[in-house]
Amino acid sequence: MAYPQLTEEPGALATAAAIRAGKLSAVEAVDAAILRTDRLDCDIDALAIPNFEAAYAEARALDVAGPQPDQPLFGVPMTIKESFDVAGLPTTWGHPRFKDQPAPKDALLVRRLKAAGAIIIGKTNVPVDLTDWQSFNPVYGRTSNPHNPERSPGGSSGGSAAAVASGMVACDYGTDIGGSVRVPAHFCGVWGHKTTWGLVPKHGHDFPGMSRREGFLAAADGPLSIAGPLARNPQDLAVLVEVGAEVPLRARAKPLAECRLLAITTLPGAPVDASVLGPTEAALETLARAGVRIDRASDLLPDQARHYRSYLKMMNITMSGGAPAPDGTRATATDWFALLNAQAACVAEWEVLFATYDFVLAPPAPVLAVPHAEQAVFRGKLVIDGKEEPGSCGLVWSGMATFPGLPATVLPIGSGNYLGAELPCGMQVIGPRWSDLDCIAAAEAIGQVLHS
């Protein structure tokens, strides 16, 4: 099964290997990435804030020092989501009032990426407050899907996915609480990974009004939200996870042929458009013909409708910082502890499921790349099989992995026709907590079956 690819540019590990072999320098790699960005981004608007001068300086320093054993990303030019602090660059989250306030220091993840040899050439675009499956704001404008300029690249890490898919850079790091890594990967036809909650730190990923107030820096990651990478191949994805991780990860390396999978394509209140179901069913059929064991239903699957309600409540409280809802009500401490209990129950139910199944396969979203709109997707409607459905119904598919804090890898599986346009389609591979490398390996094996 073919899927649309827009570039033949090498990935992150291939670029690092070429620099180590002396085929090009870090400065040349950075220069090439900047030239590609200059050429491509005028039609896409993925890069919100350039960091070119600093990138050249870092590349020159790396060329002088030479590669070190602990630098798997040596000399690799990459971008990072606008919401992460990079010293000397503004962090706005789409708000004009912060556009002239440079961050005083790098986020912890940025420091880890640089220590691994990566060079940040800029920051990629986001929606206001990171709350949409589109990526536009009054500071940096609107990012378009590189496959179709009339469509969204997804959000909130839409600029990240567009930069990677178009070939500007080999990789990027985004964040995900409502599919914000997985949906852009799905919309743009690249690889994305939602990490286990707490695996990759988000220190230095704070709303700018907080992080600039009297030197305030959050000391803990917010509930549900994670930092996760985007790339054009699974090998790069795995290295980016390892570079960012708080603790070393181990992979079981269990062959796909020995795995038992559960595929979920229907859920209560979460219809899926034929443009997504078509490629998904074709992929599942191809895997079954290759001898992969796939069940299509199980009583072990946690009650998604019940957990979705708790997920929405927890996400709304988290993203508002506990501020009153539009109707004036505010969650109490009792409400919050009830949600923590519901989350713990959800985690336990998934652990029971993973005692039988190795991975769960599911759509990352119910549609392919949506047309541009002035209204946020979640406040409008999604057209699913010709019918208008609430935009929020798409969050059921992202919440499946988010609420219990599970890792999930999105791989491109093919393409479908959505509202008259041929667009990429992905699939998410969900695994037990802390099995991040196993999820990526399983997605890689699935990709090899589908695209061989």
List descriptors.
Amidase signature (AS) enzymes, 17% strand, 13 helices, 452 residues, eleven-stranded mixed β-sheet, globular
Which parts are unreliable, with pLDDT below 50 for 5 consecutive residues or more? 211-217
Kindly state the mean pLDDT as a whole number?
95
**CATH secondary-structure class of the largest domain:** Alpha Beta
**End-to-end span in angstroms?**
8 Å
Outline the structure in words:
The protein is an alpha/beta fold and 452 residues long. The protein folds into two domains: 233 residues, Alpha-Beta Complex (Amidase signature (AS) enzymes); 196 residues, Amidase signature (AS) domain (Amidase signature (AS) enzymes, Alpha-Beta Complex). 34% of the residues lie in helices and 17% in strands. The chain has 13 helices and 15 strands. The strands form three sheets. It has an eleven-stranded mixed β-sheet, sandwiched between helices. The protein has a two-stranded antiparallel ribbon with strand order 4-5. Strands 12-13 form a two-stranded antiparallel ribbon. Helix 9 links the parallel strand 9 and strand 10. Helix 5 packs parallel to helix 6 and helix 10 crosses helix 11. It is globular, with a radius of gyration of 20 Å. The termini are close together. About 2% of the residues have low confidence.
